[in-house]
């Protein structure tokens, strides 16, 4: 149940609802983008990579891309960009072992809008790993610049952002630009074999699915005296909806994507509950610490979805399917009959974070144009839909949520750390948090 402890001013609530209303203009502008020359495919050419977002996931993604290096897949990191110079320094320090594969001496860009400078460089592919709230803007700009893209999930934090990504992805297809999304389970052979087995009827008609991301929580970065409000929020981005979308979007999307994959598309409705039991003090931003959502797909199959950030509780990250002839532990790749006897096991999963990069470069080298943008956007919208259900306490539909005009931030208007943050703290340093049953208009 929701038990927010914050002082919740109406002005901050309006900020949540209205900030970023101009962001939808970017999506409309896509329709006028010129179709540049089709991005060339690579045979033995060196692929130059640019990294936009040099935090932990960005550093990891860049390293995994460089790990694909071989005589037939020559890749080099030639440009980096991040709002913080210390993150760039940390990222490059972590790449010391990639001698000869990193050369950013003349292409290191710092600032909120540093991505624009990077996209003007001669990189062939960009890795987008900034906080997710910036993803639609960065993706649109990268496609407009004619770059192949690997972007981390989620690809947006609200419906206007999802629509902006879908519009840009349409242009990517026309330009023949590769688009990969960091939902790595789709690249793991164990998951692939298990999903196919279930689609082939191994447990009969699927009746129910379950998905979990329960753990203790994530890092928290304290405010420093010299930080502006915007700088503090971007540095502590996980705790602000306009930047992360809440942990149901930032983490649980992986499990929701697996069930969407199994169901061949997103759900039609959702209802749920959530709140803040342990995130009650300063430094906890806006996000909930637990969500429980019941999704219903077009064939009537339901998914029970649970994600929680509370220490001392049951922790698990996994997916399950139950059918008329048995059940499946999807994450473990095991199928059981109705007597709970294992009747089939999938091959062991590879490291999905590495495999998704190997698959991407292999496809490009082979002249293929992989595109994961649409399902990345749909699974993102599934997580946003779940958040809307828990925040409002209402039954919400896919169409209703996807067509929502609520934009959490106008990222296009952010020029520097001196820009105004989309949401402001109250006089006690606390941020507005939605309450189910009261804030029922958060979907329209």
Explain what the structure shows.
Helices cover 32% and strands 18% of the residues. With 444 residues, it is an alpha/beta fold. The chain folds into two domains: 10-185 and 354-371, NAD(P)-binding Rossmann-like Domain (Rossmann fold); 189-350 and 382-413, Dihydrodipicolinate Reductase, domain 2, CATH 3.30.360. The strands form two sheets. It has a nine-stranded mixed sheet with strand order 14-13-12-11-7-10-9-8-15. The longest helix is centred in the last third of the chain and has 20 residues, at 373-392. The model is unreliable at 1-9 and 16-39 (pLDDT under 50).
Q: Which descriptors would you attach to this protein?
A:
alpha/beta; single chain; Rossmann fold; 444 residues; Dihydrodipicolinate Reductase, domain 2; 9-stranded mixed beta sheet; 18% strand
Principal-axis shape equals globular
Number of helices in the DSSP assignment: 15
CATH second-level architecture of the largest domain = 3-Layer(aba) Sandwich
Output the structural class: alpha/beta
Largest sheet: 9 strands, mixed
- The CATH class of the largest domain is identified as Alpha Beta
The pLDDT mean sits at 92
Uncertain spans: 1-9, 16-39
Euclidean distance between termini CA atoms: 23 Å
Q: How many structural domains in the coordinates?
A: 2
Question: What is the H-and-E element order?
Answer: HHEHEHEHEHEHEHEHHHHEEEEEEEHHEH
CATH superfamily of the largest domain: NAD(P)-binding Rossmann-like Domain
Give me the CATH fold name of the largest domain: Rossmann fold
Beta content comes to 15-25%
User: How many strands appear in the DSSP assignment?
Assistant: 15
Provide the spatial order of strands within the biggest beta sheet.
14-13-12-11-7-10-9-8-15
